[in-house]
Amino acid sequence: MITYHIMLHGGLSYCQPKGKESSPPPLMPAGPSSMTFVRVMGSLEWNYPWELSSSLYRIGDVRAMLESIVEHHGAEGISHPNKLEECGELVTHSNQCEAFIKPMCACSKGPVASAVVINRVQELFQNPVYQETQMDVEELDQMFWEGRRYKVEHYTGSKFNAMHIGDFVLMEGTENSPLEEATVV
C-alpha cells in the first residue's frame, strides 16, 4: 500500500483542477470503512499517489521520496511545496522511487473530507480552481476574528463529485469570536 487518500471515495468522478471527468477505478473493500484500488487503473487524482493535502504515508516512504526527488531534481525539487508535489509526481510516474512503485492505494468508503478552495496556495503553476471564491489570508483571518464560521450542515448535507469544492457557505450572523470566548486569568 502506498498511501491512504483521506479525500478520495467512490463518489468522486470529476477532477476540478484539470476540468475533466475522473471516474474511480474498481474499488475493493478493505474493512468496514475503507476501500483499496490499483492506482494505475485510475487517472488524475486516482493515479496521484504523492498528494500532499490530505494523504497518509509511512515515514520511511516519505524519506525515500524526498531522497529520490533530491537525487533526480536537486535540492530545488524540495524547495517549495508546489515543487515538492510536482517533482514527487514526476519521480513516482518515472518509477524513480522504489517505495512508490507499489500498485495499491486506499481511500475511505464514503466522503470524510473535502477541500473548500478559498485560499490559493498554488504559486508556481496555473491552477484554475474556483477563481471566484479566491480570498487572501488576511480576509480569511478577518472573518475568523469576526466570528464567521462555515455552515457545516451545507457541506455534510450535500454530495460533491470532486475533492475540491467551490462552495463557500457561511452561517448567518456570527458566533462569538475566539477573543470573546477566551478567559484571561
What does this structure look like?
25% of the residues lie in helices and 13% in strands. The protein is an alpha/beta fold. It has one domain (4-181). The protein has a five-stranded mixed sheet, with no helix packed on it. It has a two-stranded antiparallel sheet with strand order 2-3. Helix 1 (59-73) packs across helix 2 (81-93). The longest helix has 15 residues, at 59-73.
Would you summarize the structure shown here?
The chain has 185 residues and is α/β, with parallel strands linked by helices. 25% of the residues lie in helices and 13% in strands. The chain has helices at 59-73, 81-93, 137-145, 152-156, 178-181, and strands at residues 4-5, 14-15, 20-21, 28-29, 34-38, 55-56, 104-108, 115-116, 164-165.
Largest sheet: 5 strands, mixed
Number of domains: 1
Helix content: 10-25%
Instruction: Please count the beta strands (DSSP E, at least 2 residues each).
Output: 9
Globular, elongated, flat, extended or rod-shaped: what is the shape?
A: globular
Query: How much strand?
Result: 5-15%
Structural class: alpha/beta
Chain-averaged pLDDT = 84
Major sheet: order of its strands? 4-5-7-1-6
SSE series: EEEEEEHHEEHHEH
Provide the gyration radius in Å.
19 Å
Instruction: Give start-end ranges of low-pLDDT stretches.
Output: 179-185
N-to-C span: 50 Å
Individual helix count: 5
